[in-house]
Design brief:
CATH topology of one domain: Serine Threonine Protein Phosphatase 5, Tetratricopeptide repeat
Pfam families: ARM_TT21, ARM_TT21_2nd
Protein name: Tetratricopeptide repeat protein 21A/21B second ARM domain-containing protein
CATH class of one domain: Mainly Alpha
Order of helices and strands: HHHHHHHHHHHH
Radius of gyration: 19 Å
Largest sheet: none
Organism: Caenorhabditis japonica
């Protein structure tokens, strides 16, 4: 895209449409680095613009499963669980081997009070497609919630402690690579562990292990 062409448009969706879909998607991935870790009721302008940009890409290339997955993530973090669920199924229809889609599906099932067995099946399926999920705290966080739903707090605590022991990976210097290595979900793991220990009246043991 020539510089003088870009300068003739004010920033907005029409401006972004002048870029290639690949470049736009790379920008979208970067935006997710600034998303909240848990769903929020009022999405900010970054989240709204990200959704519009993803939709613009999907209008041109509707078969892109990874874009559909990011749309599902966006809706999930905007507390729009019904739309997130729709996009998850669209994603899996396009490509059922995307491990992250199965992980998000498990999250949605648990958040909506669905069957625990369905959430467990989604986790297993995701893990079968990508064994590296065991190295992420998000996988262990969701798995611990399935145990907690079954009132098996001992296994939930064990799983959460395993998540905290996952070694930190070296961050990439490539600005176009999402900051997955930051493993920001560890904060959520710590909070979930505290909550579970409080339920089992074992908060003292956690304080001792944290010292």
């Amino acid at each position: 895209m020539l510089r003088n062409q870009l300068q003739s448009y004010p920033f907005g969706l029409q401006y972004l449409s002048l870029f290639s879909s690949d470049l736009l998607y790379s920008a979208v991935e970067q935006c997710f680095d600034f998303y909240p870790l848990v769903p929020v009721k009022t999405p900010d302008e970054c989240m709204k613009l990200t959704a519009k940009t993803l939709q613009m890409i999907l209008d041109v290339a509707p078969g892109l499963a990874h874009c559909a997955l990011q749309m599902a993530r966006n809706n999930y973090l905007c507390s729009n669980t019904n739309e997130a669920e729709k996009w998850i199924y669209k994603t899996l229809e396009k490509n059922d081997s995307l491990a992250d889609a199965h992980i998000l599906k498990a999250q949605l099932i648990l958040d909506k009070g669905g069957k625990i067995s369905d959430a467990e099946d989604a986790l297993v399926t995701g893990l079968n497609f990508n064994f590296k999920l065991r190295e992420t705290s998000l996988y262990h966080l969701i798995k611990s919630k399935t145990y907690k739903k079954k009132n098996d707090n001992d296994e939930a605590i064990k799983t959460l402690k395993m998540a905290l022991q996952i070694p930190k990976k070296d961050a990439s210097n490539n600005v176009f690579v999402p900051k997955e290595t930051a493993d920001t979900h560890k904060i959520s793991v710590q909070l979930e562990l505290i909550d579970t220990l409080q339920q089992t009246k074992r908060i003292v043991s956690f304080e001792k292990t944290a010292l």
